[in-house]
Amino acid sequence: MKKPPYLAWSTADVNRLRIMTIALGIGTATGGLAMSLSSATQILMENGSPYYIPATATMASDTPIRWDNPTPTHHTVTHSDCMKEDRPCLFDSGAVAPGGHFTVPGLPVGRYPYHCGIHPIMRGQLVVTDDPSTPSQL
After folding, report:
1. Are 130 and 109 in contact (CB under 8 A)?
2. Which of 20, 49, 62, 103 has CA 20 to 30 A from 70's CA?
3. Could you list the residue range(s) of the whole structural domain that residue 14 is in?
4. Which residues contact 4 (CB under 8 A, 6 or more apart)?
5. Residues 97 and 57 placed together within one structural domain of the fold
6. What pTM, to 2 d.p., does this model score?
7. Rounded to a whole number, what is the distance in angstroms from the first to the last CA of the chain?
8. What stretches of 31-94 show up as alpha helix (H) in DSSP?
9. Measured distance CA(108)–CA(50) in Å, rounded
10. pLDDT tens string 49-99
11. Do 102 and 130 reside in the same domain of the chain?
12. What distances in angstroms separate CA 128 from CA 5, 89, 104, 105, one per listed residue?
């Protein structure tokens, strides 16, 4: 018996499907298309690699950034400079519960590595530009 095509999907395919399902669900709940919901950059927390989707997100300065946690596990979003005494800690979510989210209103131009304080293997990076035409990316 031949397997249905969805059983052959890669993890990346499944993750893309999850992102689109969440985006469409949010859009439906708000009465519009999710892609026009706002200019916030959306990042998804996952229990498997790459853990934060996208692993590197690029956006214009002062663009809101939102991390959603659809997993059954608590996670954090902790700016890596929070671990250094001589550097400013620009964001630290604390524990984000399953089904919860964390939002940063925007950041100045720069590169911002971050990680999960509960699961240190989870790492991501924000790239903030001064180009207002830079789209927030999934």
Report:
1. yes
2. 62
3. 1-37
4. none
5. yes
6. 0.70
7. 37
8. none
9. 25
10. 999 999 999 999 989 999 999 999 999 999 999 999 999 999 999 999 999
11. yes
12. 38, 16, 13, 13
